[in-house]
Design goal:
heterodimer; B: alpha/beta; 6-stranded mixed β-sheet; 5-stranded antiparallel β-sheet; 27% strand
């Protein structure tokens, strides 16, 4: 049997499983990413504007937020997932299955997103903020007309990094009953010793990551006007 | 027009206070092109930033068109007296004041993600102009600085001189009575500098705008300014009509500036 026919046979037997797992991975990471950005973006903005010498300096708020973000980022995902089970049960009603993983994934990614947003926004030239202040801009005008639009290309460059991170975390969640490609790899690839399924899931993950990264780069370069010729 | 009285500014640094300005008094008349010249670190940038209160003075008094925008006096004999009372604008009034004072910087500080047109529209958006009005006004301004053909270009596609022209158009958007210029030509070559100075001169003549300009180049003062103040080591050491101050320099620092010793420092 040639490799090609072997592959055809494998896929014809498992294609439904593979497609489902792939879609599940995409779906869960997509939702978690959106939620993490909804929560993390305001956090990141707050950290930036409350920093000393920024537009709304506030030592207390700045330090507390920074502290929360650091704590969030220092807990390994697998531990966070277990620790958050009561919260997950309260929100979703169960701790098992793909949907239940959205809660820990979102909470794990939120501080990560907040830091990424912070990084992107502090990069914005302070001269621009001063210019806006000299023109009588309010703090919210500075945020929405200077910081966010000027930092947007950098923010967009961070999105694939967040998604790829979440794909990794979700694979871990899959290993303990969260569905997706991680689940498939563990159940078939590991427990049933089907290395071929393991390899297919790895290849699929590589392809997904590659596409997301390329897409992110494409969009970021498209919207960034810093070196238009 | 602009009246600065006994202004001092101290910065609190980690290793103690740093005196940036000391007892500076200045009177700028309407339609003046007032040059403030001095070496790097003399305090001239701090001084211009005090005029629109980007920097809050430690002591002193600032009046614009007769209206006090800041006052904190060292010696108060009668705290209730109208002309001795502490004055500091609230945020709303401060923003209103700043909208009436244009400012350009050494770096044009253009928004890199906005086109020329959108950059010039920025202060109008800030001031809450309706969209329809913004368009017409932006066209006028682009015409004023002769950059209509670049309306849809991004700053990254412009030369240094073109960028500074855009920033001048932007500063003029709200038809300010005062235009503050913080070393606007320091990063430009001599030909472009001349063009920018001509533009500022035209704007002053055409719109009767009072211009305060910070520089370390004596040539700029000679070409553009009607009056000049020489600032040295936190204090104003000489001021008056350009001809008077430069023709008969009484101060050593003025003679140094005229010999162009600054060029080697920058």
């Amino acid at each position: 049997m040639s490799f090609f026919t072997y592959l055809i046979n494998l896929l014809s037997e498992f294609h439904q499983l593979l497609i489902d797992a792939t879609l599940q991975t995409l779906y869960i990471t997509f939702i978690s990413t959106v939620l993490a950005y909804l929560l993390g973006t305001p956090l990141g903005i707050l950290v930036v504007i409350t920093a000393p010498k920024s537009i709304a300096p506030h030592k207390g708020v700045n330090e507390v937020l920074s502290w929360i973000i650091n704590i969030g980022r220092s807990i390994p995902f697998i531990i966070l997932m277990v620790a958050l089970m009561p919260l997950t049960r309260w929100i979703v009603g169960t701790t098992i299955g793909p949907v239940a993983t959205i809660v820990p994934l979102t909470i794990a990614a939120t501080p990560f997103v907040a830091r990424m947003i912070e990084q992107s926004l502090v990069e914005v030239d302070s001269g621009l903020i001063e210019m806006a202040q000299a023109m009588g801009a309010t703090s919210s005008q500075i945020i929405f007309k200077v910081l966010l639009p000027e930092g947007l290309p950098s923010v967009v460059r961070g999105i694939p990094i967040t998604i790829i991170n979440l794909i990794g975390s979700y694979a871990m969640a899959g290993a303990i009953g969260g569905g997706g490609l991680g689940d498939l790899a563990i159940r078939y690839g590991y427990h049933r010793r089907q290395s071929d399924i393991m390899i297919v899931t790895i290849v699929l993950l590589i392809i997904i990551v590659e596409i997301i990264q390329l897409l992110g780069n494409f969009v970021a370069n498209r919207i960034d006007k810093r070196d238009v010729r | 027009m602009i009246e600065i009285r006994h202004l001092s500014k101290q910065f609190e640094m980690k290793d103690g206070p740093f005196q940036a300005l000391e007892d500076v008094s200045l009177h700028v008349e309407q339609e003046d092109i007032y040059g403030i010249i001095g070496m790097s670190g003399a305090g001239k940038s701090t001084l211009i930033r005090c005029i629109n209160l980007l920097e809050e003075p430690t002591w002193g008094e600032i009046l614009i068109e007769g209206k006090c925008i800041f006052r904190r006096l060292k010696d108060v004999s009668d705290p209730k007296a109208e002309d001795q009372k502490f004055v500091r604008l609230n945020d709303t009034d401060l923003r209103k004041l700043r909208r009436e004072i244009g400012m350009i910087f050494q770096s044009p500080n253009l928004l890199m993600q906005r086109t020329v047109e959108e950059n010039i529209a920025f202060p109008l958006e800030i001031a809450g102009y309706p969209r329809s009005k913004i368009q017409d006004r932006v066209k006028e301004l682009m015409d004023l600085v002769n950059i209509l053909d670049k309306a849809h270009n991004y700053p990254s596609q412009l030369s240094g001189g073109q960028r500074q022209r855009v920033s001048i158009a932007r500063a003029m958007a709200n038809t300010p009575k005062i235009l503050l210029c913080d070393e606007p030509t320091s990063a430009l070559d001599s030909l472009t500098t001349t063009q920018i100075l001509d533009l500022l001169w035209d704007i002053n003549q055409q719109y009767k705008v009072t211009i305060v300009i910070i520089t370390h180049e004596i040539e700029l003062v000679k070409k553009l300014c009607s009056k000049v103040a020489v600032i040295d080591n936190t204090r104003i050491v000489d001021q008056g009509e350009v001809g008077q101050v430069l023709l008969n320099p009484s101060m050593e620092i003025t003679r140094q500036l005229m010999r162009g010793k600054i060029g080697s420092e920058e």
